[in-house]
Each structure stands twice: as C-alpha cells, then as structure tokens.
Amino acid sequence: xxxxxxxxxxxxxxxxxxxxxxxxxxxxxxxxxxxxxxxxxxxxxxxxxxxxxxxxxxxxxxxxxxxxxxxxxxxxxxxxxxxxxxxxxxxxxxxxxxxxxxxxxxxxxx
Length: 110
What we know:
0% strand; mainly alpha
C-alpha cells in the first residue's frame, strides 16, 4: 500500500510540475531573478515590512506601500504573480480533494 500511495503522490506532483502554468511560473521567476530592479524592490519591501511590524510608523507604511505599488506595476512581476496564483489554486484544489477523500474514507469506516 505504501508503494501505491507513494506512486499516486508522485503522479499528483508530476501533474503540477508538468503543467504549463507551473513551467511558465518558473520561467518568469528566472527572469525576475535577473532583474536588479525587482530584486532591489523585493529586498526593500522585506526590510520595510520588518520595520513596520516593529514600529507601526505611518511613514514607514507609506514608503512600504509606495515600493509595493512600484513592484506591482512591473509587468514581469505582475505576470509572475498571476501565474503563481494559478499554480496555487491548482495545489489548493488538489489539497481540498485529498482532504475530502480522506475525510470520507475515515468517516465511512465508523
């Protein structure tokens, strides 16, 4: 049974990693990794997020929002975020289906 389960899980993972959405997401991520502007904005945002959590300073929040708006306005980043959302929706769907399946299996035996 363990081998069958392992094979089934492997097939699920492969169905995700072989999908066009996943491949496009990886391609866009590689392009983003080459963009100094995107990398700099992402790093700045991380620093500002930590600072805002500590300080709750409105000026930090304004700067954070401005940097996030700039990042969101970059077409490459926007495309990546949309593809990533598609991949995550697929993963969530699979997770929900598996949860439903196991719930039914466990509760039918009672």
